[in-house]
Structures are given as C-alpha cells and as structure tokens.
Design a protein that fits this description.
Largest sheet: 8 strands, parallel, barrel
Order of helices and strands: EHEHEHEHEHEHEEEEH
Strand order of the largest sheet: 1-2-3-4-5-6-7-8
CATH architecture: Alpha-Beta Barrel
CATH superfamily: Aldolase class I
Helix content: 25-40%
Strand content: 15-25%
CATH topology: TIM Barrel
CATH class: Alpha Beta
Number of domains: 1
C-alpha cells in the first residue's frame, strides 16, 4: 500500500490533497495534525470520509494515546497510526499494547492499527528483530522509520525487522521517494509518504505522487 500523509490545516486543503492521492491511484491517505489540535482534526477527517466514501482514510492524532484515539474516531475511519506503540522488547508484559487492544474491543473498531516501533524521535531500539517479533503479536502493521523526518531508514534496519516479523506486514514512514522505493519493495508492505512526494510541508506534488506509484508498479 502507498499511503500519502497529509499535514492537515483546513478541510479544503485536506480535500484537495486527498484528491491528488486518489487520482494518482494511491490506496488511501493518512491525515495528521501538526498544525492543528486533534479535536480539530477529527471533524476534518469526517468531512474527508464524507467526500470520499468507501476509500481508505486513516488518522494520526498527535497528542492523543492510541487507545484514546479509538474512543474518539468514527467507526468508518479505516486506520490509526501512532508514532509509539509502547512496545518493550525486553519485557514479558506489554501494558501499552494491551490498553489499545482492550479499547479496540470495547469500541468494536475493525480498522487497521499501524504502531510505531523503533520509530523516529522515540526510544532507541537495539534489538530490532526481537522488537518486531514482540510487536507483531499486538499490532496489525508494525511501522518504523529512519532517524528523522524525510530521512530514509537503512536497508539493514528494515531487513532485521522483517526477519522478526516473518509474514506479518511492515510499514515504513519516513524517507521514501520515487527514486529509492525500489530498495524496500522486497521487505516492506506499506509506505507512509510525505516529504518525498510533496512540494511543501502541507501540499502534495501530483507529479511526485504519480512517480512514486509508477515506481512501485514497475
């Protein structure tokens, strides 16, 4: 899956960027609230879902724990992405992950949870394979990144996490471009992309989006 990440400012701005992604043939989008508060993001997400019914729309509510996001979103939100899934590869118990599972069950939410593991700006993880193996028991899609926004993850890191995951899916959420996506196609199942296909922090570049989809299809 290719899921452009839209840094939301307004409903009109979100809709125009979602249209770019859909017209290019992307599988869906993630909406994220860098410039607004999460209570402002969710009504905009409802507006996007209403305009694009049946299409895959996910949210990353910065400032809200994943289990709290489940209680706030509409049932037709397709996915939740959290930068930190709270996985501790050195512990027998995973209380943060269990909280999400309990919240999901209580709400009967059937969407897809993409949880950050060894993710940018979070705790450093040295045992990547073990972290991925543990995370696969709790997350629908283990999601990782490079060291920072727009920075590509090393192939060695992605390969180590894939070994831990086996057949379970892996997503990459930083540094993917039309020029380098082929380096990861044998290891990753999903790409969350912003910087590599944008002309500014809040606006997708239609030509770059299409170039990424073309590279994946090839």
């Amino acid at each position: 899956m290719v899921l452009p990440v839209i840094h939301v400012e307004t409903l009109d701005q979100a809709l125009s960027n979602v249209a770019i992604a859909k017209n290019a043939g992307c599988n869906g989008v993630f909406l994220i609230n860098h410039f607004i508060r999460w209570p402002e993001l969710l009504p905009i997400a409802r507006g996007v879902v209403a305009e694009f019914p049946g299409w895959w729309i996910g949210v990353n509510c910065l400032g809200l724990e994943p289990e709290a996001v489940v209680s706030q979103i509409d049932s037709n939100i397709s996915g939740i992405w959290a930068d930190n899934a709270g996985i501790d590869e050195n512990s027998r118990s995973q209380p943060a992950a269990e909280k999400f599972l309990q919240a999901r069950q209580a709400r009967n939410w059937n969407g897809v949870y993409l949880g950050g593991v060894a993710f940018k700006y979070q705790r450093e993880v040295t045992e990547l394979e073990q972290a991925a193996r543990v995370a696969a028991r709790y997350l629908d899609v283990v999601t990782t990144s490079g060291l920072g926004t727009g920075q590509a993850a090393s192939r060695e890191k992605i390969a180590a996490m894939k070994r831990g995951l086996g057949d379970a899916p892996l997503a990459i959420a930083s540094g993917i471009t039309p020029e380098n996506v082929s380096d990861y196609l044998d290891l990753a199942n999903c790409f969350l992309v912003a910087t590599g296909i944008s002309r500014s922090f809040t606006e997708l570049d239609p030509e770059r989006v299409k170039a990424l989809l073309d590279a994946v299809k090839r």
